[in-house]
Each structure stands twice: as C-alpha cells, then as structure tokens.
C-alpha cells in the first residue's frame, strides 16, 4: 500500500509540470514485466488548454495492428485484453498509466496511447511507443527473471547482531513482489522508484547469529502475484570461539 501511495504521489506532484499548451507524453521507451504477474507503463499526459472533466476524456491504448489494449469504454477492448487492463490514476489528472495483469508472453507491444477530448480534439502519440520485455520462468530462456540480490557479510560473529539485505527490481508498483527470508529475525522493507518504469524493493533482515548458524543456508525469495517465485541463496560463515556456547 505504501508503494502504491508513493506511485500516485509522484504523479500528483508531476501534474503541474504536465500542464501546457502542446500535446506531450512522458513514457519510457520500454519496461520489463514478468509473465503471470503485472506490469505498469508509467504515463504522464499534457494537452492544450485547461483541465477537462473526466466525462470529456477518452483514453485509448492500442497496438501497431490497431488491437485495442485499453479503452475508457471497456466494451471496445479487444478480447485478448478484456479484464486484464486498467488505468492507474485518472485522465483528468493527466495520468494515463497503463496496468496489464496478468501479463502474457505475447504482450510485448509496442503500445501507443491516444487521447480524445470531447468537442475539442484527438491525438495519437505515435512517436511515443512503449515495448514490454516479458520475462518467463523457463531456465533455458534468456528472459528468465534475475534472482534477488542478496548481500551479507562474508564472516559474521556468533552473538553479534547482523543485518542482511535483499533487493529486487520490478515493474508493478500496485502489486509489488513480496520478499521473504528463510531465517527468523526483524524484517523491514522499502520501495524506491527507478528509471524506465522500474521500482526497487529492498528487504532488510536483522538477527543475532549463533554457532548453529555456521554453514547454514540463508535464502531470500521474491514471491510474485500469481505465486511464482525466484530465490537467491548463500551460506552463512559464522565465527565463534571455543568458549562461545551460545546455541
């Protein structure tokens, strides 16, 4: 929920920047998504004149083959995208961000946004197309998602508190992956916006190791919407003295 709040806050702050006297669209040229999860294409719109009522605005996302990916009138959405697409935010706030969930391996695009303003004008942003690199859970596939980045000290001391971190990049701020640990301890997490529609979620685990943790496996797992998982594993190297009897 905190991640989604930050996502909306970013666009609320950016609205004043988007207002202007010309047609303009801010989108990344490409984003990365995971098959079976969701992906968000961040989109910020500018059009001539004052803000319009929601009922005056029609937002459309479509492919090069004119397949309707999203339409304000949902009955006009192509069968392949029915019940899978939505806009995050509101067009009247000049937010045209597209969410696709669940993402399919055929959803590579490119995608184009079009705005239609009642009793005014229509405009397709043909020079601002967005493609999606869809990663899948096939270990022989070059687009298999990268595992989380797991950071832990090479040597930790028994009885001395240690903090490890696990980070993962994703492209679905409304439904971010959940990072879980194989070891008990105090867990905290945060999410920060990156470039090209990416977000980084960081999970920190703090615990006090014992001699029983020596050569024990420590894993961090990213759990996605839909239940798919990808993990990173390391072996703990715990130092303890002969007089250290902490269990």
TrEMBL record:
| Keyword annotations | Disulfide bond, Membrane, Signal
Cell compartment(s), UniProt? Membrane
Q: Which GO cellular component terms, listed alphabetically, does the Swiss-Prot or TrEMBL entry include?
A: membrane
Q: Which residues form the Ig-like domain?
A: 148-231
Identify its membrane topology class: Single-pass membrane protein
Q: Which InterPro entries match?
A: CD80_C2-set, Ig-like_dom, Ig-like_dom_sf, Ig-like_fold, Ig_CD22, Ig_sub
Q: Which Pfam families match?
A: C2-set_2 (PF08205), Ig_CD22 (PF24518)
Q: Which domain of life is it from?
A: Eukaryota
Signal peptide from the UniProt entry: 1-20
Classification via PANTHER family: SCHWANN CELL MYELIN PROTEIN-RELATED, SI:CH211-171H4.5-RELATED
Task: Please identify the protein, giving its name as recorded.
Answer: Ig-like domain-containing protein
């Amino acid at each position: 929920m905190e991640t989604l709040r930050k996502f909306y806050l970013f666009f609320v702050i950016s609205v004043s920047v988007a207002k202007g006297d010309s047609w303009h669209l801010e989108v990344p040229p490409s984003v990365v998504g995971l098959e079976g999860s969701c992906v968000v294409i961040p989109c910020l719109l500018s059009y001539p004149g004052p803000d319009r009522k929601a009922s005056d605005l029609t937002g459309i996302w479509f492919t090069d083959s004119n397949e309707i990916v999203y339409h304000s009138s949902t009955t006009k959405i192509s069968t392949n995208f029915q019940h899978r697409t939505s806009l995050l935010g509101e067009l009247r706030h000049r937010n045209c961000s597209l969410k696709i969930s669940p993402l399919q391996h055929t959803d590579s695009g490119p995608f184009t946004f079009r705005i239609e303003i009642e009793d005014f004008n229509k405009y397709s942003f043909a020079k601002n197309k967005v493609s999606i690199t869809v990663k899948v859970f096939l270990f022989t596939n070059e687009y298999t998602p990268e595992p989380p980045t797991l950071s832990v000290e090479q040597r930790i001391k028994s009885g001395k508190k240690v903090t490890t971190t696990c980070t993962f990049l994703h492209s679905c701020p409304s439904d971010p992956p959940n990072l879980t640990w194989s070891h008990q301890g105090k867990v905290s997490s945060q999410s920060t916006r990156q470039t090209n529609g990416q977000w980084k979620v960081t999970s920190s685990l703090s615990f006090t190791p014992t001699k029983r943790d020596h050569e024990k496996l420590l894993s961090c797992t990213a759990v996605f919407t839909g239940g798919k998982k990808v993990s990173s594993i390391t072996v703990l190297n715990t130092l303890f003295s002969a007089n250290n009897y902490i269990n």
